[in-house]
Amino acid sequence: MSHLFKPLGLVMLMALTACANPAHSPTVHDFGAGVNLAAAPNSSAKPHISVSAPTWLWDNRIRYRLLYSAPTTVRFYGLDVWVAPPPELFEQFLLENLPPNSPPLSLHLMSLEQEFTSIQQANIVLRFELELKTSTSQATLSKIFSLRQPSPTPDAAGAINAMLQVNQLAVAQITAWLAQIRH
Asked: Model's pTM, two decimal places?
């Protein structure tokens, strides 16, 4: 009977060794190194931004959804993760890329995921509400941004590349909205 347990023990040892193998550790990603083209080269001024999000967005997993077969099921990539929760990464990205003279902003991240419309086609979806208090009337202005960027490939690498592009789009749209309000 003990001869039956030896192969099982060997299989378990091999499985544990495979789990500890660094080659199978998740690859960690961020939102890319931002360059604030509007800031002076030595400027240390940064806009004030506070970001909030629902509790389910405060983890570092990269989310995706198969709209064509299971639209209510949220899935996560197993071999790719964010270095920090998306609300933190998005806040840092905006701090590095919005003009330093931007007014204080409150941003509520509503969704950030990759959505597959078919096996071969996916988009990154970024949705957030931006609020600012006007300096003259102390009124609060808000706008909901709903951005979609096609993933170059239908996988984690495509999600990450599309995320970098949708972040740049978000900066451009926020900057345009702020300029519109000021004029």
From this structure: 0.78
